[in-house]
């Protein structure tokens, strides 16, 4: 049932009314709303029960193992939420003077320092509100750098073919043409292909290392040298930072600018699709262009740096300071783990991934790059299974849901056929991983014994397999009260 | 180690299965020259008791001021159930609902949100959210340029009565694509854009006109005339509006003869705490014919194999993970959890609740204005009708007055001296339904003291 189907026009929740209705006689009628807003008329209990029940139709980290490659679905410690929701943080208007927010500013400043140390960058700004906005900030800084030098002929950004879709989309938003570079058979960027396309038109390259193929690109130094020699800059997509915390720093690999997804490596919640937070780090040469406002410290006072102090900054990307509440959660997480805990993150994320990969290979699964170490994630390709049974990676993913496991990432990266990108994270136990292995083996067996069962999965969830094609063809994006041909659920 | 469950025995068994001597060996593909030597500048870890002590000490230094400021972020009452439900693990720790069958809770909620938000805006449909109000306006500008087939222009008209930081953000985002923002002046007597001042723009081609409602001064713009003027000159109309105001003020869909083409803004007033400015969420709504130009995630209703209804992410062919460099935007993550809170908020308040919240905010502001303008040296600056913010003119610089008010425990408003120097010593103040008559009296009294 939708909340609207429980609604009565004249029912309302008395406890939430601020007072009686008042006539707005001093606002001329031409400015007033004609048609009343169609919000549901339900009691508080009806609403609470409805949304509690809806929540129970979700998989989540708190309820299920969630081995979603490239998404780092690790445990989100409850303390981070509880403490970040202290009323003295929640009650602060963004215009509050810094002198009334020294406690908060200190947290943000120290988080910037922690992220500098973790990434080896010269400075970090918390302004971007998500990974893709961090990417935007990074590429906008690359553009500002070239422009400031009068080097305006650079029109291209290079991206590996295995890159996240946000990389090429961001380059376009910053007014660049995108050129894809192929990946070699060993999973590393094809250096010959890179040599062939890098040149005076190259503004920069966007890379993830470890790559989206779940391997560490061993030629990163050569790539950095090639691009730098051509006058381009290197952008590091921090999607996979969890794999290398404390082991190797993007700054040391030669990157000029990076973004970090706090909702991955620093365990802030994914929230059903956000809010994220995508802080950017810069090397010395991009320092003048870093986005503001950012937290700064003078003597023992914390304050905000703005466009006034940073005139060459690419400026602000949000009306306020970015996703402040998410930064607090990341800060609390980083302080709980501390230096030794953060180093252990990469250790155990990598141990779990390699263990899971080896066990799946033993069970007859084909991995995309069998000669390579897994990083924090790896790719299984099901092309043989698909050929022999007609069961696809999507079918396997849906059937895993019946076994109580969230599906791995499917069909990404685009260059590996019928793939599952699997990332267990460091917070899962050996028992949980063993259970997942058993489930994948069971599904594989079913694909041979009873392929229809897998192809028609899931069978035990609140709904059966949903019709995506119909959703796109017969668009229904809001409730209008008519059921049309659709049967009520 | 915090949050890592492995026993020594587990670790050894796993290493044996891999055939590695130790964990360090798993990193042997990283070139030795690049290896870092730890994270020495990060402090050692704290247990939950210790970190609680630390954060509580920090929070204790930050007593919030009593809020009489708006300027883009508004303090409203939030029912207790909103965040109790929103922070349930099933909402809080779920991923983007790509696996629809395992995400029906989030997907149905977002479909309900799209229904509520499109109704609030008087528009055909809404997406499932963007980052914040300012970046939503930037996306709306990009969308209008894609959608306006009658115009070849990459120029957009934007009044200076739009929030100054919104204008900065829009510029910072769209200027990389060669899009030009042309600023429109306002009438310094009435505090709104005058339609008869627009004749000078009629001879050139512009893709869109942005109309704020209420504007940054809290005033109501003449949206009907502005919308019709823009449509007469082949521009699309983008409304950037306060969603709480739209409970009682005409929403973009009702503007002029045909209504605005795109509505966007900051969703924070609907159930999101002030929280130092974030996380908030941006909303965007449009007419049916523009749906394929919409950025960000959209949820659609469909059926499952048995014909029962269900919900999925739809029209994904617009998005970066499918279209890559040809996507409508690079946006991926949105502000799902904030929309969860807002949807629950709107269901708990109902139409009656948001209307009364808007009404009480307005009448409280009116009450404060009467008290402030009774003080010597304080005048109302503009003549236009207002919603729940209003500009007052002082007989002395606003910044020191605000400092004195802060010492007295008040966030007294936003000084216009930097962004609107032409207005002299002016201040925009805001009152919502959260303030009692007594609190308004006390603030007015403190204000009079601060002016002395």
* Strand content range of chain B: 5-15%
Structural class of chain A: alpha/beta
Mean pLDDT of chain A: 95
The interface involving the most residues is between: A-B, 203 and 201 residues
Note the quaternary state here: heterodimer
Rg value of chain A: 25 Å
CATH superfamily of the largest domain in chain A: Type I PLP-dependent aspartate aminotransferase-like (Major domain)
Structural class per helix/strand content of chain B? alpha/beta
Q: What layout of secondary structure does this protein have?
A:
The complex is a heterodimer of chains A (489) and B (452).
Chain A: H1 44-55, H2 78-84, H3 87-90, H4 102-119, E1 123-125, H5 131-148, E2 156-160, H6 166-173, E3 177-181, H7 191-197, E4 202-207, H8 220-229, E5 233-238, H9 250-253, E6 257-260, E7 280-282, E8 294-298, E9 301-305, H10 324-362, E10 366-367, E11 378-381, H11 383-389, H12 393-402, E12 409-410, E13 419-422, H13 430-449, H14 451-455, H15 468-473
Parallel strand pairs in A: 2-3, 2-4, 4-5, 5-6
Antiparallel strand pairs in A: 1-7, 6-7, 8-9, 10-11, 11-13, 12-13
Chain B: H1 8-18, H2 48-60, E1 66-67, H3 80-86, H4 89-92, H5 104-121, E2 125-126, H6 133-147, E3 155-159, H7 164-174, E4 180-184, E5 208-213, H8 223-232, E6 236-241, E7 262-266, E8 282-286, E9 299-303, E10 309-313, H9 320-323, H10 336-373, E11 378-380, E12 389-394, H11 398-407, E13 410-411, E14 414-415, E15 426-430, H12 437-451
Parallel strand pairs in B: 1-13, 3-4, 3-5, 5-6, 6-7
Antiparallel strand pairs in B: 2-8, 7-8, 9-10, 11-12, 12-15, 14-15
Your description of this structure?
The complex is a heterodimer of chains A (489) and B (452). Chain A is α/β, with parallel strands linked by helices and 489 residues long. Chain A folds into three domains: 53 residues, no CATH class; 259 residues, Aspartate Aminotransferase, domain 2 (3-Layer(aba) Sandwich); 127 residues, Aspartate Aminotransferase, domain 1, CATH 3.90.1150.10. The longest helix of chain A is centred in the C-terminal third of the chain and has 39 residues. The radius of gyration of chain A is 25 Å and the shape is globular. The C terminus of chain A is likely disordered. With 452 residues, chain B is α/β, with parallel strands linked by helices. Chain B has two domains: 106 residues, Alpha-Beta Complex (Aspartate Aminotransferase, domain 1), CATH 3.90.1150; 265 residues, 3-Layer(aba) Sandwich (Aspartate Aminotransferase, domain 2), CATH 3.40.640. Chain B has twelve helices and 15 strands. Chain B has a seven-stranded mixed β-sheet, with helices on both faces. In chain B, strands 11-12-15-14 form a four-stranded antiparallel β-sheet, with helices on one face. In chain B, α3 packs antiparallel against α10, α6 crosses α7 and α10 packs across α12. The N and C termini of chain B lie far apart (59 Å). The model of chain B has no long low-confidence stretch (mean pLDDT 96). The chains are: A alpha/beta (489), B alpha/beta (452). At the A-B interface, α1, α2, α3, α4 and α5 of A face α1, α2, α3, α4 and α5 of B.
């Amino acid at each position: 049932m939708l909340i609207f189907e429980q609604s009565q026009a004249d029912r309302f929740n008395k406890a939430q009314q601020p007072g009686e209705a008042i006539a707005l006689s001093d606002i001329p009628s031409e400015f007033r709303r004609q048609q009343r807003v169609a919000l549901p008329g339900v009691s508080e209990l009806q609403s609470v029960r409805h949304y509690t029940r809806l929540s129970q139709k979700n998989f989540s980290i708190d309820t299920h193992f969630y081995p979603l490659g490239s998404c780092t679905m690790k445990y989100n410690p409850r303390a981070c939420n509880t403490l970040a929701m202290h009323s003295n943080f929640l009650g602060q208007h963004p215009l509050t003077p810094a002198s009334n927010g020294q406690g908060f500013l200190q947290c943000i400043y120290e988080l910037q320092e922690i992220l500098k140390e973790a990434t080896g960058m010269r400075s970090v700004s918390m302004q971007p509100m998500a990974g893709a906005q961090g990417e935007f900030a990074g590429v906008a800084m690359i553009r500002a750098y070239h422009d400031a030098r009068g080097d305006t002929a650079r029109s291209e950004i290079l991206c590996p073919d295995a890159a996240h879709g946000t990389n090429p989309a961001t380059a376009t938003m910053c007014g660049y043409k995108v050129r894809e570079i192929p990946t070699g058979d060993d999973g590393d960027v094809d250096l010959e292909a890179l040599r062939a396309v890098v040149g005076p038109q190259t503004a920069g390259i966007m890379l993830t290392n470890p790559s989206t193929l779940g391997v560490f690109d061993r030629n990163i130094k050569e790539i950095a040298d090639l691009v730098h020699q051509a006058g381009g800059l290197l952008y590091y997509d921090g999607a996979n930072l969890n794999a290398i915390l404390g082991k190797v720093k993007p700054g040391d690999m030669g990157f000029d600018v990076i973004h970090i997804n706090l909702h991955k490596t620093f365990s802030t919640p994914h929230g059903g699709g956000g809010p994220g937070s995508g802080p950017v780090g810069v090397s010395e040469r991009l320092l003048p262009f870093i986005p503001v406002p950012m937290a700064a410290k003078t003597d023992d006072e914390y304050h905000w740096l703005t466009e006034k102090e940073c005139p060459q900054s690419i400026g602000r990307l949000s009306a306020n300071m970015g996703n402040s509440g998410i930064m607090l959660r990341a800060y609390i997480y980083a302080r709980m783990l501390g230096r030794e805990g953060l180093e252990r993150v990469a250790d155990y994320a990598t141990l779990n991934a390699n263990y899971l990969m080896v066990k799946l290979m033993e069970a007859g699964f084909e991995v995309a790059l069998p000669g390579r170490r897994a990083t924090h994630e790896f790719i299984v390709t099901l092309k043989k299974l698909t050929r022999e049974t007609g069961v696809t990676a999507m079918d396997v993913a849906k059937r895993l849901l019946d076994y109580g496991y969230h599906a791995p990432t499917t069909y990404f990266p685009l260059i590996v056929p019928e793939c599952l990108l699997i990332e267990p994270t460091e917070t899962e136990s050996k028992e949980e991983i063993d259970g997942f292995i058993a489930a994948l083996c069971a599904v594989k067996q079913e694909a041979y014994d009873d392929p229809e069962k897998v192809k028609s999965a899931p069978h035990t969830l609140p709904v059966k397999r949903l019709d995506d094609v119909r959703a796109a063809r017969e668009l229904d994006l809001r409730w209008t009260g008519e059921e049309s041909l659709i049967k009520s659920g | 180690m915090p949050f890592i469950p492995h026993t020594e025995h587990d670790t050894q068994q796993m290493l044996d299965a891999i055939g590695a001597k130790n964990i360090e060996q798993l990193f042997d593909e990283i070139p030795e020259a690049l290896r870092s030597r730890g994270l020495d500048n990060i402090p050692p870890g704290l247990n939950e008791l210790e970190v609680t002590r630390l954060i509580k000490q920090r929070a204790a230094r930050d007593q919030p001021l009593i809020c009489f400021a708006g300027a883009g972020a508004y303090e409203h009452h939030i029912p207790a159930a909103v965040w109790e439900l929103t922070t349930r693990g099933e909402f809080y720790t779920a991923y983007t609902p790509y696996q629809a069958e395992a995400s029906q809770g989030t997907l149905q909620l977002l479909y309900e949100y799209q229904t509520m938000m499109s109704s609030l805006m008087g528009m055909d449909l809404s997406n499932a959210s963007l980052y914040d109000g300012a970046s939503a306006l930037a996306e709306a500008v990009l969308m209008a340029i894609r959608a306006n087939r009658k115009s070849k222009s990459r120029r957009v008209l934007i009044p200076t009565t739009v929030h100054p930081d919104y204008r900065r953000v829009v510029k910072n985002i769209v200027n990389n694509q060669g899009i030009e923002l042309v600023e429109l002046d306002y009438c310094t007597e009435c505090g709104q854009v005058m339609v008869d001042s627009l004749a000078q723009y009629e001879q050139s081609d512009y893709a869109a006109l942005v109309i704020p409602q209420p504007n940054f001064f809290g005033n109501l713009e003449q949206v009907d005339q502005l919308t019709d003027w823009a449509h007469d000159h082949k521009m699309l109309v983008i409304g950037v509006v306060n969603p709480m105001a739209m409970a009682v003020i005409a929403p973009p869909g009702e503007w002029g003869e045909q209504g605005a083409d795109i509505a966007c803004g900051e969703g924070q007033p609907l159930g999101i705490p002030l929280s130092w400015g974030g996380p908030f969420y941006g909303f965007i709504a449009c007419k049916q014919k523009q749906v394929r130009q919409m950025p960000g995630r959209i949820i659609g209703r469909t059926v499952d194999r048995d014909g029962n209804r269900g919900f999925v992410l739809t029209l994904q062919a617009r998005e970066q993970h499918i279209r890559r460099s040809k996507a409508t935007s690079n946006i991926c993550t949105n502000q799902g959890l904030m929309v969860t809170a807002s949807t629950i908020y709107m269901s708990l308040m109902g139409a009656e609740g948001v209307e009364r919240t808007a009404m009480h905010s307005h009448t409280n502001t009116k009450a404060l204005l009467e008290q402030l303008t009774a003080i010597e040296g304080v005048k109302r600056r503009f003549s236009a009708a207002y919603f729940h913010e209003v500009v007052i003119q002082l007989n002395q610089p606003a910044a020191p007055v605000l400092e004195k008010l802060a010492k007295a425990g008040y966030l007294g408003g936003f000084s216009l001296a930097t962004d609107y120097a032409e207005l002299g010593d002016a201040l925009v103040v805001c009152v919502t339904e959260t303030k009692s008559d007594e609190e308004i009296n006390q603030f007015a009294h403190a204000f009079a003291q601060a002016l002395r």
